[in-house]
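Worked example 3 (structure in, sequence out).
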């Protein structure tokens, strides 16, 4: 959870595909996450991961004022890495 809330350690985390940072910029992701978490409020709980298929899924972060949906796509190799990511404020 720390990586998506902060993004300062994202490149060093080893969980993202090589091309991830060509499409997603940590500074922009950090601003988007800070804005979403500021609006949503304190985290209450996090749902279990919902797998849409073997490489895609999402989970919901329940917060005081709104929920945050985190969706992702993994690379198809063994050790799968995060290749796509979206954070959406819900209601």
């Amino acid at each position: 959870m720390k990586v998506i809330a902060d993004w300062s350690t994202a490149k060093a985390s080893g969980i993202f595909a090589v091309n991830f940072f060509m499409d997603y910029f940590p500074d922009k992701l950090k601003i988007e996450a800070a804005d979403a978490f500021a609006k949503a409020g304190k985290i209450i709980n996090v749902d279990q991961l919902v797998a849409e298929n073997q490489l895609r899924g999402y989970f919901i972060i329940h917060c005081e004022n709104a929920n945050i949906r985190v969706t992702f796509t993994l690379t198809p190799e063994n050790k799968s890495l995060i290749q796509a990511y979206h954070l959406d404020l819900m209601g």
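Notes: The longest helix spans residues 26-40. The chain has a mean pLDDT of 92.
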